[in-house]
């Protein structure tokens, strides 16, 4: 099972949520997701997320709260997706892997074409508001 940590990045002033669209060269191209990545040996989930968001988006974040994970079976692999609520504390967005990004109010998030493993994460987040 592939364990992936993802960031639900919330703007604390507007309450808008950051979402990223997967690039054409990525698996599940052009699907929307909460950005993140795989943990490296010896990393905690929080350390992984801080590193991945810096690498992928050039942003510094603070990790605030862990939400319930989702286990999803894709045809070629099984993923355990572990989400964390985060805030940006520095940096300017530079997309290194993703096609584009959006800041959306929570009510608009369900209108996107999401990667399947992210959908229960999204629904759980929205239910917690």
Give a structural overview.
- The protein is 19% helix and 39% strand.
- Strands 1, 2, 3, 4, 5, 6, 7 and 8 form an eight-stranded mixed beta sheet that branches.
- By secondary structure, it is α+β, with helices and mostly antiparallel strands.
- It is globular, with a radius of gyration of 13 Å.
- The chain contains two helices and eight strands.
- The N and C termini lie far apart (30 Å).
- The model has no long low-confidence stretch (mean pLDDT 96).
- It has one domain (2-128): Nucleoside Triphosphate Pyrophosphohydrolase (Alpha-Beta Complex), CATH 3.90.79.
Task: Compile the SSE list and pairings.
Blueprint: E1 2-10, E2 17-21, E3 32-33, E4 36-38, H1 45-57, E5 59-66, E6 70-73, E7 78-91, E8 100-104, H2 118-128
Parallel strand pairs: 1-7
Antiparallel strand pairs: 1-2, 1-4, 2-3, 2-8, 5-7, 6-7
DSSP helix fraction = 10-25%
The helix/strand class is alpha+beta
**CATH homologous superfamily grouping:** Nucleoside Triphosphate Pyrophosphohydrolase
Number of helices: 2
Number of strands: 8
**Number of discrete domains:** 1
Detail the poorly predicted runs. none
Name of the level-1 CATH class: Alpha Beta
In CATH, the topology is named Nucleoside Triphosphate Pyrophosphohydrolase
Please give a quick description of this structure.
This protein has helices at residues 45-57, 118-128; strands at 2-10, 17-21, 32-33, 36-38, 59-66, 70-73, 78-91, 100-104. The chain is of the alpha+beta class.
Keyphrases for this structure?
129 residues, alpha+beta, Nucleoside Triphosphate Pyrophosphohydrolase
């Amino acid at each position: 099972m592939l364990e992936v940590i993802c960031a639900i990045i919330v703007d604390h002033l507007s309450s808008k949520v950051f979402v990223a669209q997967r690039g054409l060269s990525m698996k599940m191209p052009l699907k929307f997701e909460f950005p993140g990545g795989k943990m490296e040996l010896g990393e905690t989930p929080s350390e992984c997320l801080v590193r991945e968001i810096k690498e992928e988006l050039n942003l510094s974040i603070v990790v605030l709260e862990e939400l319930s994970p989702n286990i999803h079976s894709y045809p070629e692999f099984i993923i355990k997706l572990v989400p964390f609520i985060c805030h940006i504390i520095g940096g300017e967005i530079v997309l290194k892997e993703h096609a584009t990004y959006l800041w959306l109010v929570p009510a608009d998030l369900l209108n996107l074409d999401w990667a399947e493993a992210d959908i229960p994460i999204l629904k759980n987040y929205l239910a917690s508001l």
